[in-house]
Amino acid sequence: MNLALFFDPLPETLTAATPAPTTLAAYATRFTETFPDWRAADLALIGLDEWRGSSTGHPSRHGANEVRHRFYNLQKGSGAVRLVDLGNLRPGLTLEDTYQRLREIVAALIEENTVPILLGGSHDLDYGQFLAYETQNRAISFAMVDSRPDMAEPGPGTAPEDSHLRRMLVHEPNFVFSLAHLAHQQYLTPPEVLVALEKMHFETMSVGEVRADRRLSEPLIRQADFMSVDIAAIRWQDAPGYYPAYPFGLGNEEATQLCWYAGHNEQLSSFGLYGYRTDQDVNGLAAATLATMLWYFVEGFYHRRPETGFGTFRFLTYTVVLPGNPDKLVFYKSRRAEKWWMEVERLGDNSVKRVVPCTYEDYLNASQGDLPQRWIRLQALLS
Q1: Coiled-coil segments, which residues (predicted)?
Q2: Phi, psi at residue 241, to the nearest 5°?
Q3: Measured between alpha carbons, how far is 112 from 129 in angstroms, rounded to an integer?
């Protein structure tokens, strides 16, 4: 597939200066005259400037380029970096065309084990990211970080950015196994939306829950095949780059931690940062925040350590005996990290089994005779 047909090269203002040898700019292969060899890369950055899905119109400047300016001046982290920048995606004739372009591009990159990083545009563009997984021929899990679940009824007067999550969940064929929605703000979220997600056995964490103990979000992200982040999940004081402004949300420390978790997840094969509007970012603070989030994702990626071989010497195995049905639960803990997993079998059919990420608290609850809520949700999804 000739991906170069879909992209414009980076502007000269981003690539003219000779980069300092210790910065990311010196290690990234960027599209200027020659299209990079994306098949040989670990990560591929894609700039987006598509806003037809937003109700607030097109911002004055290209957001991905603003973030790139900050990102490439950051110091390279530990280890080798094989990062290509494919430039900026040319929008399709219609918004639906753009979604389909993203579908094809993301699917092609995943097939070559290159992780696409989608940067910019309105949050509904993650629908194109989502469509790429239809080619996987399996059920997938994903995580979304946003100030509210975008579950509005599509129709006249509803912007696609307000209904893209609903569109994913009702897509046919349905290939969604699980969803984790993180950092919603309850005063922005209709109660019936949370009820609907609960009935579908999906997990949610409010912004207060994430901020109280961000470690509890790690197993939810570790289960995801892809993740999308809306900058609106971050409080305005830390990232003044979205509209309308909200004074509450994730702090920049929580936001970067979630990006680290995403990068560190060896199962995750695409990542998106959406919603940044340059016309709101007077002093460049939001661009700097997103650049740092992107840095943590890349750094997390290069700290990946595949966790395989449950039941082998790599893991400690804990079997908890229970009084009912099931009569036992099996947990695994990595010997080299504070990571836990739980074995879930479909009741009455042990041929359907999954080993899923969980928390130490899930193990403690089981040890006290209580079935973890995570087990109950997974049991429902397997039924």
Answers
A1: none
A2: -135, 35
A3: 16
The answer on pLDDT for 350 being more than 70 is: no
Q: Provide the H-helix boundaries in the chain.
A: 12-15, 63-71, 95-111, 126-131, 164-169, 191-199, 207-212, 218-222, 252-264, 285-301, 360-367, 373-382
pLDDT in tens, 294-325: 999 999 999 998 887 887 888 999 999 998 88
What angle, 0 to 180 degrees and rounded to 10, lies between the N-to-C axes of helices 360-367 and 373-382? Answer: 100
CA distance 169 to 175: 9
Q: Is 31 helix (H, G, I), strand (E, B) or coil?
A: coil
Q: Could you tell me how far CA 136 lies from the centroid of its own chain?
A: 18
pLDDT tier, 351 (very low <50, low <70, confident <90, very high otherwise): low
Q: What is the pTM of this model?
A: 0.95
8 A C-beta contact, residue 222 and residue 261: yes
Strand partners, 119: 47, 273
Q: How many residues does the chain have?
A: 383
Average pLDDT, rounded, for the chain = 94
In one-letter notation, the amino acid at residue 41 is: A
The residue among 171, 175, 271 whose CA lies nearest residue 221 is: 271
What would the mean pLDDT of 187-215 be, rounded to a whole number? 96
Cα(212)–Cα(250) distance, integer angstroms: 11
Per-residue H/E/C for 126-177: HHHHHHHHHHHCCCEEEEEECCCCCCCCCCCCCCHHHCHHHHHHCCCCCCEE
User: How many helices (H) and strands (E) are present in the chain, helices listed first?
Assistant: 12, 14
CB 246 within 8 Å of CB 235? yes
| pLDDT range class, residue 15, cuts 50, 70, 90 | confident
How is residue 279 written in tokens? 């016309």
- For tokens 């509007």, what's the residue? 277
The pair of three-digit structure tokens given for residue 360, joined into one six-digit string: 């130490």
